[in-house]
Design a protein that fits this description.
The complex is a heterotetramer, with two copies of chain A (176 residues) and two copies of chain B (495 residues). With 176 residues, chain A is mostly beta strands. Chain A is 7% helix and 53% strand. The two termini of chain B are 34 Å apart. The radius of gyration of chain B is 24 Å and the shape is globular. Classes of the chains: A mainly beta (176), B alpha+beta (495). At the B-D interface, strand 3 and helix 17 of B face strand 6 of D.
């Protein structure tokens, strides 16, 4: 008998999910209701879940950033805000205290800087285009993940950058 | 099998597509490769293969001397350029003929004539094919442009002569904006293309991109093989193509075909080619350009019209006449271009290794892929993995089939544009066929890719997936995981 | 998506095929499975799934009570039997309707009428459809059979009434052989089928097996959708099917279709069905039997006639009229049944794990498969992995395409019939279309599968393969082997 | 530098094949001629060989009985009589001395015996059908691999047999 506990943050309130595994069957408890799920791992790594009422779902479970899991099934990839209580507390407290943490914006892959649309000190909105990078013959807009102030600008137009190279530093504005 | 050899001066799915046509024609296949492609499918499926050079295209797939040398070494008599790379290089076509090779494509003259915006417009006008009103040649002054705008009516579009792919264009609403816009466009043109030349075109509002497939043989017969709907574009890049277009009726098809054949005749076209038109909401259409090559989206025409364009293109190059008199369409086809780009990150390129590749099967599903499971999407070239093409009795059935096929499709290891297509098939405006060339960009801005709601099954899947790992001894499928089988297979393949 | 649910009382490729049709129609899918199929594709692709029982078919896929219970539990309103198992069980059809379920197939009465050799012959004769001359009812004495032989001419064929699949048949050349043959056939019939009843038929020499696809809707419309060429059989089992038949011209097709529609009308047929004929070299044809279900080889008709039979069959069961008036054929299609059998060992079954599954892509290639890489071919059921279907503009092009596709096809871990097809596509008589129902067995006896000559490349491949292993650190592909990627993917899927 | 030696018996005479491997290149020597072959292993275990004259072949190499290797490429599976000198000598001398060795005929998979077409003492020809077995709903003819005398018959019609179960023993007739 194996026991596990997770916190799901997809709803209004954090929700606790409990699991008890035995052989190919897992007892899943949500909102006080428990059901026995038949589980098989396919040869390509996917899991097939069969619920007591007959519903079947088959998909792959991938790790994402802490506090999230990516499931890939017939609807495509989707992020599930789920974590064990410890990492949940960590990532959550982190999120809470991260108002002043600076956001480092880096190049995903090697390329050439085409445009730099902001300067140090500029106020930027979440989703605003900061830099246009050319890589794999494509122009890629690099956007701000959250609103804030450009604390540092590490590159200029025409510059060639390596993968993971630092491009900008944005200091998030305090969350209201 | 004849000893005639065909060399494909290309890589990826189009090289694979052409080699398949060669196999069916009984031609021997010769692949060329750069250092990043030695193990790529187009190489491992070929009868012969020759290294061109290092990964960068200009030192490999764009190197005319290296390609000619490869043909000489292998004794290939035909050379097929595919699309992209040297497909529309008159210089390459000429170099092939001078080396005594048969270039599988139109004449260098046809490529040249259609390669120049101004020259092709001139020829179309004298052939009686409507073009978008524009100042044929680069404007000397802003005044010239204002005058044009006043004659044809605003808004107008300023374009860099050397521009393309939507870069170096500027919309001008009113006369008093012309001067400033002219200056800005000139400076951009210089920056981007090192060429300040700028000209003006009348702006067609809410247009669709419709193109007509043409085939001409060396006997001088030129046929139009229906149109393709290519209005679904992201930043001027085609993403999804259809055949037929949901807005083209028989009468309009008739007129488009006539114009396309005239365009091809104007340059004595003897191969497969595509004539692109801008279709205005009022049903009027204007010649945009002619692509003197096999198009990425050629499969939708093949499925609906029952013709093997890649095969015909080779037969024509061998001097054979078209194998058919006329063709008739059946059903509806849709193609999705599967790019290694991450829709969740503004379509940033996502190079890497394709760790998982599960493709759908069943009726009306076709795969033109240039990669296998375990293969690498190199950073040096266009990030398209390949294409999914579906075919069914009508557009509604084709969309249902596409939706079904996408549900069976999985690519792991690199992010792809598959989620974009899954969002599209359930979009009411797409389903109605109500879109123009700007529609997709607009729709993406409006959150087409909004987060899909989580089902309780997904949460259970996530939780059990985590747990099943944590506790190591997780449930296994009947038999052991493929990884084990694979390695078993490898062990055996080595014992 | 509607909440209407369809349960498929079957497994393997046909269950997958029907689920795909459901997806495209917006129906929810319900799978049933035996203990050896919990992880099979037809289960993992379904919206819902129910266990029937242990592996043996009679305790699972043949258990009517278990199937009805599964439908009740899931609230499925439609039940599709696929082919094989209970597909032609009037009892199952009746049980479904009695349980208030919609059986996706013809009426129990139609199944019964066509299920009985003698009853169906009687109906055909009264419907004016020619049948092979025969003693309708079991013969009382050898004298009766001699008299029949003298009237219709020798050779004649003695058949066990309860026989089938070529078992319990005996050819009789001359009158004086009848008595002995009658006794031997009776005893065999008793041994094999526990039923001594034997009847006689006129023997048609060098016949072809031609069948006609019919569709009837609940409005009483019945259409014939062309013929299929099914003469390529090994021990009376179809191996390769084609549409159209290389020997059927428009006039003959017309007459075959007429007879098929008459046959269907004779039993008020309202679903997809197949009327099988024996075609004599002189062009005369005789009704054999009617298969009151979806046929294994239905895809070749779908490809050529542009109709989705699985879809239509479901629509008809829902009471909808046929979605088309008439259809017209285009091109030529060939289907290969890929069995887990070893041609090098007299086609002995080769169950086990499919360690490698690489399938061809490109134009005109369709896969109806019931297994995935890493999956297991269970010993309990028919050993067919699935079908490869190719479609091209004509028969010659289709054979070229099939040959190309087979070159891209690899199944590892279990032996398959793929080598048989590779031998067939280069056989001159097959290419000419010159074969009857006995041809393949004859040809196999003549060494159709003779050893293919070794090329020097193969010897090099073998030697380097051995060496590369012996020395451990063998050359690796760009990147690491898939096995590694796979396990990487699995690690990630669990982190 | 790795060196290997093999004996190829596909021709009239046994032929020696020598290999020298260095990085991704193997120097292959046959009939006194040496050529450098570029070799890559694909992710699915197949090997791609590129010869100096441009010929490319891609396939999988599987082990078979000693003295044979199976290659699977676009022409399908094919047996290559190739082995290292030692196992070659072994299998060969074995073949030479195996005239009197009895051939045990076993069931490949579980099934039911439908017919037994021979009796002990019968002379059988190579390829002759000995037993008809029903398995996976199919009738399977089990044939003699070589001609000889039925030394023993272990089953009778109707019998259910397990996989690998002994069915018959055939004593090969001395090779002329």
């Amino acid at each position: 008998m194996r026991r596990f506990e997770y916190v799901f943050r997809g709803g209004a309130e954090p929700e606790e999910i409990r699991l008890e595994g035995k052989g190919d069957t897992w007892r899943l408890t949500r909102k006080g209701e428990t059901q026995a799920v038949s589980v098989r791992r396919l040869c390509d790594g996917r899991l097939s879940l069969l619920f007591p009422d007959g519903r079947q779902v088959c998909g792959r479970v991938l790790a994402a950033e802490s506090g999230e899991v990516v499931v890939v099934d017939s609807d495509g990839p989707r992020r599930v805000p789920l974590a064990d209580p410890l990492s949940d507390r960590l990532s959550h407290s982190h999120a809470a205290g991260s108002d002043s943490a600076e956001e480092e914006i880096r190049a995903l892959i090697p390329g050439r800087v085409l445009e730099v649309r902001v300067a140090e000190g500029d106020q930027v909105r979440a989703g605003e285009v900061l830099i246009v990078l050319e890589a794999m013959k494509m122009q890629n807009e690099i956007r701000a993940a959250s609103g804030g102030t450009v604390a540092r600008c590490a590159v200029s137009p025409g510059a060639a950058v390596e993968g993971r190279a630092l491009l900008l530093v944005v200091r998030p504005s305090p969350t209201p | 099998m004849s000893s005639l050899k065909l060399l494909v001066a290309n890589r990826g799915e189009i090289a694979v597509r052409i080699f398949r046509a060669c196999r069916e024609l009984g031609l021997r296949t010769v692949a060329v490769f750069s250092d990043s492609d030695r193990s790529a499918p187009h190489v491992t499926m070929a009868d012969e293969a020759v290294r061109l050079g290092p990964a960068p295209a200009r030192e490999s797939y764009l190197s005319i001397p290296a390609l000619l040398e490869a043909a000489r070494r292998t004794g290939a008599r035909l050379v097929h350029p595919g699309y992209g790379f040297l497909a529309e290089s008159a210089e390459f076509a000429r170099a092939c003929s001078e080396a005594g090779l048969t270039f599988v494509g139109p004449s260098a003259q046809a490529i040249e004539a259609m390669g120049s915006k101004t020259e092709s417009r001139r020829r179309m006008q004298s052939a009686g094919v409507a073009v978008v009103p524009g100042t044929m040649r680069p404007a000397e002054s802003a005044a010239e442009l204002s005058e044009f705008g006043r004659r044809h009516g605003f808004p107008i579009l300023l374009k860099a002569s050397s521009g393309g792919g939507g870069k170096g264009m500027r919309r001008v609403e009113r006369d008093d904006e012309v001067a400033a816009a002219f200056e800005r466009t000139r400076s951009e043109a210089t920056a981007y293309f090192g060429d300040a030349a700028v000209y003006a075109e009348k702006l067609i509002e809410g247009p669709r991109h419709i193109e007509v497939q043409v085939i001409g043989d060396t006997q001088g017969r030129i046929l139009a093989v229906g149109e393709r709907e290519c209005s679904l574009q992201r930043r001027h890049q085609k993403v999804v193509e259809e055949c037929p277009s949901p807005v083209v009726d028989d009468d309009l098809r008739e007129r488009l075909s006539l114009a396309a054949v005239r365009a091809a005749e104007a340059v004595g076209y003897q191969s497969c080619g595509t004539v692109e038109f801008l279709l205005a909401p009022d049903g009027s259409f204007y010649f945009l350009e002619m692509n003197t090559r096999l198009q990425v989206e050629h499969p939708v025409t093949e499925e609906v019209w029952g013709v093997d364009l890649a095969r015909e293109m080779i037969r024509i190059a061998l001097g054979e006449p078209l194998a058919f008199r006329g063709l008739s369409p059946r059903g509806h086809a849709i193609e999705c271009r599967i790019y290694a780009e991450d829709p969740a990150r503004g379509f940033a390129p996502s190079p890497g290794t394709v760790k998982v590749l599960r493709v759908p099967g069943g009726p009306g599903v076709r795969h033109d892929l240039g990669i296998e499971e375990g293969g690498i999407v190199p950073i040096d070239y266009d990030p398209m993995l390949g294409k999914l093409i579906v075919h069914a009795s009508d557009r509604e059935a084709a969309i249902a089939r596409l939706s079904r096929a996408l549900a069976e499709y999985e690519v792991g290891g690199v992010a792809t544009t598959l989620p974009l297509f899954q969002a599209l098939v359930s979009d009411p405006e797409f389903r109605r066929g109500a879109f123009d060339v700007q529609w997709l960009d607009r729709r993406l801005g409006q959150g087409l890719l909004g987060p899909t709601p989580l089902r309780s099954e997904d949460v259970a899947l996530a939780a059990i997936g985590l747990a099943a790992h944590r506790n190591g001894a997780e449930p296994s499928a009947a038999g052991s995981p493929v990884s084990a089988w694979r390695s078993a297979a490898r062990r055996e393949s080595l014992r």
